[in-house]
Write a structure and sequence with these properties.
The complex is a heterodimer of chains A (about 110) and B (about 425).
Chain A lengths: L1 E6 H5 L3 H20 L3 E6 L6 E2 L4 E2 L9 E9 L4 H9 L8 E6 L6
Chain B lengths: L1 H23 L4 H22 L5 H18 L27 H15 L6 H11 L5 H8 L3 H17 L8 H24 L6 H19 L7 H15 L24 H15 L6 H13 L9 H14 L3 H15 L1 H9 L4 H4 L3 H13 L3 H14 L3 H17 L1
Classes of the chains: A alpha+beta (about 110), B mainly alpha (about 425).
Chain lengths: ~110, ~425
Amino acid sequence: MLFIREDINEMSKLTEEENQNYIEQMLRWVEELSKSGNFVSGEPLEPEIRLTRKNEILHDGPFIETKEAVSGYMIISAENIDQAAQLAQGCPLIGDVIKSIEVRPIMKN
Amino acid sequence: MRKEIDNLYRTVYSKMVSALVSYFGLSNLSLAEDIVQDTFLTAFNKWTNEGMPDNPESWLFRVCKNKAINELQKPVTRVRHVKPFNEEQAIDPKLEHLFMDYEIKDNQLRLLFACCHPSLAPKAQLILILRNLCGLKVSEIANALAMTDEAVIKTITRSKNMLRDGNVSLYVPYLTRSKERLIVVHTSIYLMFSEGYSASQGEEVIRHELCLEAMRLIKTILDIPTIRNHDTYALMSLMCFHTARFKSRLDPAGEIIELEQQDRLQWDGQLITLGIHYFKSAQASKLSTRFILEAAIASVHSMSNSFDKTDWKLILKLYDKLILLQHSPFVELNRAVAVLYAEGGVHALSALENAMHLNWLKHYYLYYALLGKIYSLLNKTDKAILHYEKALSLTKLRAEQFFLKNKLEALVNTK
């Protein structure tokens, strides 16, 4: 599972054209992952967010501590976690709008 | 002479690197590359002054061997952790067997498998293969893969470090491991072919060469009965079918011709026959792997005399199987095309509406181009125009813009 983290402030400042360009680049990455047989699924997420804790539901994320919020996820298949991390690094927007991608293996049954 | 040296570089670079790496181990890949680069530099300098020798390839091999021996004999040598590659043969300081003919193909194959290390991303594997087995320069690789030179260099460096630290042996588990690695090797070669085949920007010449290189590499695997399998045959057949159509895809002005309009007489009959021959071998396994299904789909197209005579129902059945293995937005889109011609526009619309990856498709120009096609076949001209316009707004590639503009003009003229 890849958790894609972006800078929410930067994201909200993108123009329509920049946003479109960003999604197109992501799409090309999905195409690359599909060709090499690694893509399983993934969706972009809407910017609406709720943060749920035991006694409260916040309408904003913990944006003071971290400017990074999870903006999308992807499920890929890879040989091992190292390859998965290499694949994640191949994302065209990493270092740009995307600040980091957290890579976690999904538990097998 | 520059040109001749460039050609030699392409063919001989990988022979020399793979031979050196077979002797010194993969941990010495950088050193091997340096020795070979040095050899070519010496060649360039010498031949510029004295002219080319009668047998340039032998000359290069001889000089390379000497440089390698020199390196081995240095008191402080760059050669690290030299492993004798099989028990009977310790490292021969005179490197007598280096570059023996029968060894060359074998070494290249071993290097190919070694580059397909499972901890490397497929793209990194591809880049290593292009560099070390196809002898492409960094700028050529960058151009072929639409990357910057820096990005390519970075990937190569990182990958080599990974291979070096992982102490990857070229020889010992070769035959046994090669069966597991085969799927990775196949995928890498498939990617190489895909890059060469895609119609996006880049030099036409280099892209065609990538396709041929991919076929050459698959052929070397096909020649080894103990390693090849059904997918090797499937990939070869797939590449034959696609390459057969190379000339008919673009018109003399370089504009895109869609499948419907392609002149099938321009399709290379010999390549198609070859493709069918290999496909039969793949089919004999009775398996339905991704490559076998893709080859099957290509075979149906290749064997149809015309667009109208194509068995779309069969193609749809094949896509139904393929989508179970590979459920990507792109397979969904291609399947929808099959639905269009097998079952009609209404069903195709429904297939698209129910696509699992619709969220991605909605940003893809070909999705709108397909909608445009569907609506124009359903005689809903206004809707068709709307979608073709949307498609046009989403692509920056000149050839595709030209293609879509023509579609729009044709529709507007019918109104």
